[in-house]
Amino acid sequence: MGAHANQMEAVYVDVPLLDATPENLAEYGVMIGEAVHRPGLSIPFYKGSVEEGQNLDFEYTGRAVVRTARISPRSSEVTWLERHLNMTQIFVGLGSIPFAMVLGKPNQGSGENVPRLEDVRAFRIPAGQGVMIHAGTWHDFPMSIGDPVTVMTMNSDEVVTALANAQAADEMDDGDVYKIDIQRRTGRVLRVPF
């Protein structure tokens, strides 16, 4: 009966689902799409056939790691949000399937250790595109919107090692990983409407 009572008491918050654009993602991160990021890098080779962009401001501590993950559909309820204060993590969809990113605005500057739920959004990232989140942006791992999707992630070895060494799915505060259970911390259940 206890579990049923908890379900009855749950307060659901539907996270707005938006089509990602460089403008609506700006407070959460940088959209990586078909447009060249800050074009105009002057490299003399292949002039006229290659438009060079400036470096993405990818930040991390220790060793950078690039990997892929295959994401299958799961519940639309968001259990976990995490942030990294020393990394601007990158997620890029590979192939022809879009994916969703649940993001909350960084708020570490005000000393907050829980995201402001009114600032949490789910962004539909177009197929073949991605996002580099700002340091401190609250996020869940990418979500499949329907069909399975493969994403490439750019991360730090420190973060991947901490997550892989977790003994169980529970809150974490280990190095640059601060991961919380949203319902436990806020009394709310976030839900993405798809």
Descriptive overview:
- With about 190 residues, the chain is mainly beta.
- Helix content is about 15%, strand content about 35%.
- It has helices at about 1-10, 20-25, 155-165, 180-185, and strands at about 10-15, 15-20, 30, 65-70, 75-80, 80-85, 90-95, 100-105, 120-125, 130-135, 140, 145, 150-155, 170-175, 175-180, 190.
- Strands 2, 8, 9, 11 and 12 form a 5-stranded mixed beta sheet that branches. Strands 3-10-7-13-4 form a 5-stranded antiparallel beta sheet. It has a 3-stranded mixed beta sheet with strand order 1-16-5.
Secondary-structure blueprint of this entry?
Layout: H1 2-9, E1 11-14, E2 17-19, H2 22-25, E3 29-32, E4 64-71, E5 77-78, E6 80-83, E7 90-94, E8 99-104, E9 121-125, E10 130-133, E11 138-139, E12 143-144, E13 149-156, H3 157-164, E14 172-174, E15 177-181, H4 182-186, E16 188-191
Parallel strand pairs: 1-16, 2-9
Antiparallel strand pairs: 3-10, 4-13, 5-16, 6-15, 7-10, 7-13, 8-9, 8-11, 8-12, 14-15
**In angstroms, what separates the terminal alpha carbons?**
29 Å
Helix tally?
4
Radius of gyration: 18 Å
- Overall form: globular
The secondary-structure element order is HEEHEEEEEEEEEEEHEEHE
Query: What structural class should be given to the helix and strand makeup?
Result: mainly beta
Low-confidence stretches: 1-6
Helix % is 10-25%
Report the biggest beta sheet as strand number plus sense, adding barrel if it closes: 5 strands, mixed
Strand percentage:
35-45%
Mean pLDDT metric: 93
DSSP E strands, number: 16
